[in-house]
Structures
1.
Amino acid sequence: MSAPREPLLLRRWPGLDLGHVPLGTAPTPVRRLEGLVDDVDLWMKDESRFGDGAWAGNKVRKLEWIIPEAARRRTNTVFTVGGIGTHWGLACALYGREHGLRTVLGLVDQPVDDHVRQQLARLEASGATIHRYPTARQLRVAAPWLIATNIRRGKVPWYLPAGGSNAVGTLGYVETALEIAEQVERGELPEPSTIVAAVGSGGTAAGLVLGLRLAGLSTRVFGVVVNDSFALDAPVIAGLATKTAELLSSRGATELPVIGAADLDTADDWLGRTYGDPTPASVAMVAKGAAAGLELEPVYTGKALAAISDLAPTLDGPVLWLNTHGPR
Ligand SMILES: *Cc1c(COP(=O)(O)O)cnc(C)c1O
């Protein structure tokens, strides 16, 4: 066994009053992707293996900070929400269980394909308490009741928004951005002009924006919005980055940058009809990825790659795509 990983955030501010549990192996590898998309110098940072349990991917990065924060808030239960194929809910249930944290899930119906069906089966086997609703509105109405009925011995469930995208979860991608900066420093990849990531709840993009600025890189974040269940544009994501900077500052970090909407780009042109809708372009990219040995899905990673493919002629310099999918 190697020594537990010390997060770069805690190395930067040794006195930072934040807990961290290592749930995956970092840094995740970066490599050039040949032949997947034409006309662009494309690199991949592979978050798909990040995690030690039955599920990996970008949500595990958030849980490294969320799980210890629950203990700090003196609760043993989290209540969170998502679609019936939620990667976030599954990661939360599986990693939470390993750390004594109970997960209550409010799930909303979404378009069902094989991947979603398989996810739902995994969710049902995960030990989470599951409540299902046909629409997000019905879930919102039921949420206060769900929280109240899941109070155990006076411990009130901590509400975590969809995707784990509160300021605490977003720290996972501040950490990842610092990691990318180190990899650039070591010459493992050229400094990217752009990092492209799918945006489902915003924490990944927000964390990257803040972390890249902290690291002093001028790389821009391009968020490919794949969710229309709530507002997810540059001002919203910059707002989450700002809240994360405020959290860091309240826990002892210094010299934090001011983030604004002009610090990133977003577009929802690859969303299709709605969240979870596999577009022809995303399905085609999943097939191309499979031919190149990558296991992708059409809801997030397929759409991010479809965006890169369409934008390729306009993208100058190296592009780093964050492979956020985490099958095991
Ligand atoms: C959740 C998810 C994303 C989006 O991350 P957010 O932080 O929710 O924006 C991207 N890709 C995959 C595979 C995901 O499960």
2.
Amino acid sequence: MAITLTALAGLAFTVANPVPYGSSQSSCDTIYHGYQCQDDISHYWGQYSPYFSVPSDISDAVPHGCEITFAQILSRHGARDPTASKTKSYNGTIQKIHANVKNFTGIYAFLADYEYTLGADQLTTFGQQELVNSGIKYYNRYEQLTNRHAPFVRSSGEARVVESAQNWTQGFHAAKLADRRSGRKDAAYPYPIVVIPETDGENNTLNHGLCNTFENGPDDDIASDAQAKWTAVFIAPIRARLNAALPGANLTTTDTVSLMDLCPFNTVASPNGTVSAFCSLFTEAEWHQYGYYETLNKYYGYSYGNPLGPTQGVGFSNELIARLTSKPVDDESSSNHTLDSDPATFALGRRLYADFSHDNDMTAIFSALGLYNGTGPLPNTTVVEAPQANGYSAAWTVPFAARAYFEKMQCRGQKQELVRVIIDDRVLPLKQCGGDRLGRCTLDAFVDSLGFARSDGDWDQCFVGNYTSSA
Ligand SMILES: *[C@@H]1O[C@H](CO)[C@@H](O)[C@H](O)[C@H]1NC(C)=O
Ligand SMILES: *[C@@H]1O[C@H](CO)[C@@H](O)[C@H](O)[C@H]1NC(C)=O
Ligand SMILES: *[C@@H]1O[C@H](CO)[C@@H](O)[C@H](O)[C@H]1NC(C)=O
Ligand SMILES: *[C@@H]1O[C@H](CO)[C@@H](O)[C@H](O)[C@H]1NC(C)=O
Ligand SMILES: *[C@@H]1O[C@H](CO)[C@@H](O)[C@H](O)[C@H]1NC(C)=O
Ligand SMILES: *[C@@H]1O[C@H](CO)[C@@H](O)[C@H](O)[C@H]1NC(C)=O
Ligand SMILES: *[C@@H]1O[C@H](CO)[C@@H](O)[C@H](O)[C@H]1NC(C)=O
Ligand SMILES: *[C@@H]1O[C@H](CO)[C@@H](O)[C@H](O)[C@H]1NC(C)=O
Ligand SMILES: *[C@@H]1O[C@H](CO)[C@@H](O)[C@H](O)[C@H]1NC(C)=O
Ligand SMILES: *[C@@H]1O[C@H](CO)[C@@H](O)[C@H](O)[C@H]1NC(C)=O
């Protein structure tokens, strides 16, 4: 039986009130559609966009006559403060401006009193709320399973990722307690979370780090080279404008990019996602250029633009195949055989799975699965928008609180289960396995299309050459 849109809307209404997290919720960040504040710019902040529903040519509703039998979510952590090194450098840019600029006028006036107070690395309150919302949305989307089954949860070890996993289970749990059909009970909560450390040498399919050639060899520079080429094109006019408006500032190219970064980071530092004053220093076209700058980083760092990018996602892909087919993991890349052969740390035969990771790792996993494969190499000198890039951009794939759903469904008149992949609410067409007009492939065809992962990608290239830990 299909979960209809009407049923979903009804459930949304019934769970909204009992959830004790509502107060910091702004009206333009919603459980079902994500962040919609000033969407003409905020959907172009690359991986620093807060999650939003990406336009989909194919409806993401459960097709008539079908019942979902399996739902794996792979999620990025929620919005966070800048990383430690970035926060230091952003603060440096602000200190430099304050030391050298005497007169702030017009849209720059706010800078006179702007104090740099962003922290480092941790989820913001807004970011925690995104994951609570994601748990509620997932619960309701898969209500026919979630009212009866608990999710099997794993997280990569960094604090913000583990906290994201916790916040997601909190949202899931709150929705379950509000659901009449679950009996408003949830005895399995708190659900165990298998935390896989990010320490050096750890086989962790939710965090890269083992592949020496990739981590320490020349492949490591491709993304920054690509970004430098693009920066040379788009930043110069922006930098000149800012330096003219802020006499004495003498901003470098890096300072200029930093001031753009401060728009999303100050936005997600606000508990309700109020769009920061930094955002209005730049035009809509400039935000498209910026979004593309971030896309180049992911594409040339962890996707098809990097010879060993897709290989970093092989371990998780093989684990996904194991879960989809209820067969032991067959992988000789980054999976941990000890974890994956123990039902306590890698259960097979479950209906609901939830994994929490990072943008880079998710990018590699999507690529190892052959998703978004088919557009030519992205150019370094001109913007290609997501709709023209096979649906690919950093903002459409790995925003803060990004979520991919891997679904199986049993449909009337169909012997085999069908597989569908939905990334940030956009149903992928899955042409590589003969996807039908609803984006579905048979399980066999889907698994057949994953030859790259099943043969461990180019993992054998990871240990040629002398690239051991130059870092
Ligand atoms: C967010 O909070 C601020 C300060 O509390 C308030 O002024 C603003 O109206 C709120 N914005 C939204 C979209 O709710
Ligand atoms: C500040 O800049 C504005 C506009 O550029 C100018 O009109 C004004 O005289 C300046 N004030 C000072 C104190 O320099
Ligand atoms: C920013 O830098 C100033 C000057 O070095 C320092 O005093 C301040 O603590 C820094 N602020 C943050 C939030 O890091
Ligand atoms: C997210 O989870 C953490 C850890 O359990 C908790 O302290 C925090 O209150 C949660 N955030 C929200 C918005 O519920
Ligand atoms: C694999 O997992 C086990 C159990 O958590 C752990 O003791 C071991 O160190 C891990 N090995 C690697 C190489 O990650
Ligand atoms: C973009 O730059 C990267 C890094 O130098 C390079 O590998 C790639 O081939 C360039 N892309 C195109 C389309 O020229
Ligand atoms: C501006 O900064 C550059 C370094 O980025 C420096 O070489 C130059 O002297 C500075 N100009 C002024 C006027 O401070
Ligand atoms: C960890 O990964 C390496 C590289 O693929 C592999 O040789 C090793 O057996 C793995 N260790 C475990 C515990 O699975
Ligand atoms: C991507 O497409 C190319 C060309 O068709 C193919 O050779 C490659 O194996 C594909 N990559 C993956 C990961 O499926
Ligand atoms: C590998 O590189 C390191 C430092 O980069 C060097 O000390 C070492 O001798 C090299 N090993 C081989 C086998 O070339």
3.
Amino acid sequence: MATNTLHLQAIALAAVLLICRLSPVTPAASAQQLTGCRDKCGNINVPYPFGIGARCARDEGFQLNCDDSASPPRLLTLQFEQHPQLVSLSLADGEARVLLKPESKCYPPPEERSSDVPTSSYTSINGSTTYRYSPEKNRLVALGCPNLGYIVDGSGNYVSGCMSACRRPSLGNDTVPRLPGRCTGERCCQSIIPPTLNFYVPRMFNFENGTAAVDNELRGGTTPCRYVFLVEHTWINTVYNDTKDFNRSDFEAVPVVLDWAIRNVYNCSAAKRNATDYACRSTNSECFDTIDGQGYRCNCCQGYEGNPYLDGGCTDINECLRPEKYGCYGDCTNMLGSHTCVCPPGTSGNWTDRNGCRPKDNFPLALKVVTGVSVGVFLSVFMCFWLYLGLQKRKLIRTKQKFFEHNGGVILRQQMHSGGGTHGFRIFSTEELKRATHNFASDRVLGRGGHGVVYKGVLEDKTVVAIKKSKMMEEAETKEFAREMFILSQINHRNVVKLLGCCLEVEVPMLVYEFVSNGTLYHYIHGKEPKADIPLDTRLRIAAESAEALSYMHSSASPPILHGDVKTANILLDDKFNAKVSDFGASKLAPTDEAEIATLVQGTCGYLDPEYLMTCQLTDKSDVYSFGVVMLELLTRKKALYLDGPEENRSLVSCFTTAMKVGRHQELLDSQVRNEMSAEMLEEITYLLMRCISMNGEERPTMKEVAERLEMLRRYQQHPWAEAEDNAEEIESLLGREQQNANYQLEQQNVLYLEEGRNYTFSM
Ligand SMILES: *[C@@H]1O[C@H](CO)[C@@H](O)[C@H](O)[C@H]1NC(C)=O
Ligand SMILES: *[C@@H]1O[C@H](CO)[C@@H](O)[C@H](O)[C@H]1NC(C)=O
Ligand SMILES: *[C@@H]1O[C@H](CO)[C@@H](O)[C@H](O)[C@H]1NC(C)=O
Ligand SMILES: *[C@@H]1O[C@H](CO)[C@@H](O)[C@H](O)[C@H]1NC(C)=O
Ligand SMILES: *[C@@H]1O[C@H](CO)[C@@H](O)[C@H](O)[C@H]1NC(C)=O
Ligand SMILES: *[C@@H]1O[C@H](CO)[C@@H](O)[C@H](O)[C@H]1NC(C)=O
Ligand SMILES: *[C@@H]1O[C@H](CO)[C@@H](O)[C@H](O)[C@H]1NC(C)=O
Ligand SMILES: *[C@@H]1O[C@H](CO)[C@@H](O)[C@H](O)[C@H]1NC(C)=O
């Protein structure tokens, strides 16, 4: 049986809880009273179960009256004999505050005392079923001296009390300063009261018939009136002011806090058994037992507010409308009895804080890790690659530096610095030349030879240049290379192809020359589409200019610069067919000692000085020999070696000398030359030619002599009639130059050959 009841109770409780959570309510204006009942008296709300009038209150214990005659209207409870005023009412706390008059006893002064029966009045709750004196909020207070105040319950038993006394005026200074709110025994005492107190009778001990001992200490000072009453503790500790007079019988009413409850059943579980009588009417309400004995009260469930004692009295709280109270500053959704709160989309954080929702970090941790790792990996790969490239580049730079040093770049640079002006000569970088030639593209090739390839290049400043990229270079050459470069760079002659610079960062240095537009002399005279006619004057001029250039090279420096490979392919023609001797890159400084004598024979077949072939010693006369061959080519328009002829006549030189011996050399000359040239001229030029190609180097004239003679012949060819006057001038100027250049030996008689018109024989 007992277990069944328990089960039932449990089920009932569960059902109530379930109802509390889930039952839907129609949210209505939260009414506090039954329909047709006043819910206000003055400024005090009167919620059900209280009611003004018998019909409106739950029972007579909750019945109130409203005295509308007073201003403001006064709410009165009917539970007390004197119908004291009710000044506040709270459903949630289960509290009511009433004003009650204290019990007082006033004695007239002894001399005026006619009777010892004091005036008396007291107030109490007469066995109320609704109210109890709140033990937490009320105190028993006795005022006046001497006063032993106490209260007794309905059956006359002592409940609580305290003793208040005053100092004897004769024994001490009664003017000690008093502090307000002190109720510690002197003139005022207080005591706590037990719970469940709903009735008391105040009492005061009569000191008139006391003993002497009592007289002495306790009856020291007397006050006309003494009081004993219950009062709210905040009143006695803050409002009470003991400088008040203790001679008033009409002591003002004091506030007393009452706990109210539905007390017709013992507890909630008992109350729920009688559904018609159960006070917690609202479906969204819950019942709880009072702590001061019999009774229960009702509350709205969590998330609801209103009056639980009325049907539908508890309504849902829209928490979203009160963010401060419910701590939702995010996106709020109200639900019955609750709400949800989240930070707005795209934000996260503490929505209970006004600025708690912050823009979301859209990067989840996992993604961060993945990103971090991949960035790290990428960076390290990149770093490795970069490092590798850096090392490669360093290696390249080191290689370049090595070549640069090996090729004498340092010395060259020093010489350029110490040797004064650079005359536009500069050291190029590999990249510069690569850019200039489109990375040595094949369409930039100007010519290919045994030594290397010549490219046409355009520098960044739009200068057109010819870049000679040699195939290889002898170890011995590299040693002298820088010095030679330097000397060549100093040369500035209009008939010498200017060396603009070099690039030393490669194994075999590249040379950068000025670009000469009209190709080689070789091409000019032996080209595939040969010029139909080349005037003798042009031929003489080209010869004279070339000779002048070589002569300049031989005489301008010490030791002299030897070309070593004079041939028609090394004489270039510019746009006005001016001759420019090129390829001094392969040239040599005249050896200064035995050890420097070249060990390798250089030059081109057909042009080689036979003496050089035998001695391996290149001299300025070797160039003269080679130049002789060039002159021969110019006059005969035949190649130095023509491989299609009969075996003994393949060399132009031997062919010519053979013809010379039999006096048929004229037949070898180009027909145009034969036509244009006078007999004297032919004689003169043949004489010069034969001297140049003499087997014996010492018999050959110097380059300077050749140059001057050619120049004279050219002038003669141009203006044979002005020869006489010109000659004198010429000689004069030549003599003048001789003084400047002591090395030069002018053979004056040679100048006069023409005038004398002699015939010459040659020893071969
Ligand atoms: C309560 O008051 C009534 C009159 O209102 C009285 O008859 C009754 O004796 C009182 N009860 C007590 C316990 O004082
Ligand atoms: C009481 O104290 C006041 C000032 O403190 C003093 O003037 C007065 O004489 C004292 N009276 C007695 C009886 O000691
Ligand atoms: C005080 O005592 C006297 C006699 O000693 C008596 O007559 C009087 O009634 C007593 N007064 C009270 C209030 O008990
Ligand atoms: C106490 O009462 C006296 C006279 O009524 C007044 O002068 C004094 O200011 C009061 N003290 C306090 C703290 O209320
Ligand atoms: C109360 O005492 C004051 C002086 O302290 C006096 O003026 C007043 O008349 C007294 N009132 C009564 C009813 O004794
Ligand atoms: C409620 O009161 C009844 C007696 O009326 C008692 O048997 C029961 O145990 C009480 N329940 C609680 C929860 O106090
Ligand atoms: C329930 O309460 C009402 C009124 O309070 C009463 O009339 C009725 O007898 C009670 N029912 C039971 C079963 O206690
Ligand atoms: C959220 O903010 C409130 C108010 O600033 C604070 O009391 C609470 O501790 C915070 N909660 C968290 C989880 O930080």
